[in-house]
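Dear H.,

Thanks for agreeing to be a second pair of eyes. The structure we're designing against is below in token form, covering all 396 positions.
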């Protein structure tokens, strides 16, 4: 009996050690603090003001994942990529990460429970952190793209904090869905202009191979450099309207199981759609919200991507500028914030391996922070969907 109890204690100690620093694990409630006596009555735990303190995404713990806290494991990491030197119209998305964090301050004010999805991602047992920003030079695009790739890949190839566990239905052990057989953490990148998705997809490829992409945007972003930007140089040929063309050329996208949503851009001509077909994408036009509605759009997306691993890229300009004006290339006739959030919740159950939100340029926002708030709330839905579905499958 004694031996069993010693063994149990030893095992418990191993489990606790394996889970690392308890302060990082104990995230909830995020905005509750225990102040020492002169600041607050002794021993009393109180809700911290949601507007106080250093701003991280949703007040998550800040971990310096790329520098001195490389050993702190996580399941989902937010990381900024403040890059905007490949934009065609209004610059300013380099301030996106800081703006989105400011817009996210209130996400956990009431605890963070997502009613329609019936999950609290902040209390799901996952270790979710804000890694700050990847250092990105504003002087050399080629170098910056490499920095984003290296930063993303470094995080992606760490071992996830939580083991995959068992399938909730069959009770059978889950195994990773990655190509390299590893249980990777998930990265949610705060852009940055949309160009950052090329280095991110190169990183994703290293773990998952060619990936199905769900892309919400008013624009195709598969344009050939000769059509978008004119391509006077190699550097100019890679920009926020052509990165998917290059991703497709490099074989990073799973042809036929990828899809755009909220498309409403003008074109150089219908041949842009032929080019988009060749890049591997199906399309949902923004105006389809009036005919098939959110349910029809969700069905189209799910029918296209199937059950495999998915990368999710959200351009804030998929939302109508009435709701999200602070972006580089706004297009009227878009979806409301509510409609995009409904569609994102419709992705419940998909294996979203990583995601981003891009093209948030806070300088053009209203004083009420409409756009950064919309970006943060959209990511709350993404985080909730991720928290519900582990990146594992039952082996046949
Ligand atoms: Mn875009």
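And this is the sequence the design step returned. I haven't edited it by hand at all.
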């Amino acid at each position: 009996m004694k031996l069993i109890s010693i063994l149990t204690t030893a095992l418990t100690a191993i489990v606790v050690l394996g889970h690392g620093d308890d302060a990082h694990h104990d995230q909830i409630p995020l905005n509750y603090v225990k102040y020492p006596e002169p600041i607050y009555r002794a021993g009393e735990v109180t809700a911290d003001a949601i507007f106080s303190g250093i701003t991280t995404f949703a007040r998550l713990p800040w971990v310096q994942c790329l520098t001195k806290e490389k050993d702190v494991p996580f399941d989902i990491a937010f990381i900024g990529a403040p890059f905007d030197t490949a934009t065609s119209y209004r610059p300013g998305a380099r301030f996106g990460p800081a703006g989105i964090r400011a817009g996210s301050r209130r996400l956990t004010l009431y605890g963070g429970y997502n009613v329609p999805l019936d999950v609290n991602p902040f209390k799901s047992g996952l270790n979710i952190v804000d890694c700050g920003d990847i250092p990105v030079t504003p002087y050399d695009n080629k170098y910056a793209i490499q920095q984003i790739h290296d930063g993303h890949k470094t995080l992606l190839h760490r071992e996830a904090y939580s083991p995959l566990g068992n399938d909730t239905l069959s009770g059978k052990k889950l195994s990773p869905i990655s190509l390299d057989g590893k249980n990777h953490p998930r990265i949610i990148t705060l852009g940055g202009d949309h160009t950052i998705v090329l280095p991110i997809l190169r990183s994703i490829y290293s773990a998952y191979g060619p990936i199905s992409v769900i892309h919400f945007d008013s624009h195709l972003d598969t344009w050939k450099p000769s059509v978008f930007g004119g391509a006077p140089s190699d550097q100019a040929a890679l920009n926020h309207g052509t990165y998917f063309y290059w991703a497709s050329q490099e074989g990073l996208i799973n042809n036929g199981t990828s899809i755009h949503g909220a498309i409403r851009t003008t074109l150089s001509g219908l041949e842009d759609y032929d080019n988009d077909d060749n890049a591997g994408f199906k399309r949902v036009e923004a105006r389809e919200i009036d005919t098939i509605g959110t349910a029809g759009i969700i069905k189209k997306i799910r029918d296209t991507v199937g059950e495999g691993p998915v990368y999710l890229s959200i351009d804030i300009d998929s939302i109508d500028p009435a709701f999200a004006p602070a972006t580089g290339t706004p297009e009227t006739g878009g979806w409301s914030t509510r409609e995009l959030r409904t569609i994102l919740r419709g992705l419940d159950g998909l294996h979203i391996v990583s995601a981003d939100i891009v093209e948030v340029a806070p300088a053009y926002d209203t004083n009420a922070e409409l756009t950064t708030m919309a970006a943060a709330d959209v990511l709350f839905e993404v985080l909730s969907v991720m928290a519900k579905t582990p990146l594992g499958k039952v082996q046949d």
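Two observations from my side: Residues 370-388 form the longest helix (19 residues). The first strand starts at residue 32 and ends at 34.

Warmly,
E.
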